[in-house]
Design brief:
A five-stranded antiparallel beta sheet has the order 2-3-1-4-9. A four-stranded mixed beta sheet has the order 5-8-7-6, covered by helices on one side. Helices cover 29% and strands 29% of the residues. The protein contains four helices and nine strands. It is an alpha+beta fold.
Length: 167
């Protein structure tokens, strides 16, 4: 999968959300390629340097939230794996060395079209491979982002400015 950015949106307004997405990307000089998504409410986007684009979008959102329309979250993806727990654990474990021993971190998990485990059990299983002890749910330095969409999971290690939620 070449998806490097997931954008969530109000599925009742898909066309206007596509237009909003185009406008915000133009405003920060990004050239996205929308890929076909079989899931309502999720744009799958091919984009070089998605973390840089999201940082620029975050700065833009502080000046003008109206331009974002009914798009909600902008989530860079480092890698895609199967949504089987061992595969996700392996991908997460590969990111741990990039979290300093004394850095505060958290896991942010979203799941769609995935019913194998409930949210709490999934968090426990996925965080058990992380040996960093400084967890901070409010102001972490690093965020292990897990986006499960059906049989696939997008996994990222993000800094706080690399994830955008438009309020």
């Amino acid at each position: 999968m070449d998806v490097k950015l997931i954008v969530t949106y109000d599925p009742a307004h898909q066309k206007s959300c596509e237009e909003s997405l185009k406008n915000v990307m133009d405003a920060v000089g990004a050239k996205p390629k929308l890929l076909k998504s079989k899931y309502n409410g999720i744009f799958l986007i091919e984009l070089p340097k998605p973390k840089e684009a999201v940082k620029k979008l975050a700065a833009l959102s502080k000046k003008d939230q109206e331009i974002f329309g009914k798009t909600h979250r902008y989530i860079p993806v480092d890698k895609w794996v199967s949504s089987k727990v061992p595969d996700m654990q392996k991908a997460i474990k590969s990111l741990v060395p990039k979290i300093g021993e004394n850095e505060k971190w958290k896991m942010d998990l979203e799941k769609r079209h995935y019913h194998k485990l409930d949210y709490q059990e999934l968090i426990v299983r996925l965080t058990e491979v992380v040996d960093r002890r400084k967890i901070d749910l409010k102001k972490p330095k690093k965020i292990i982002k897990v986006e499960i969409i059906g049989t696939n999971a997008g996994i990222s290690l993000l800094e706080s400015g690399e994830l955008l939620t438009v309020s």
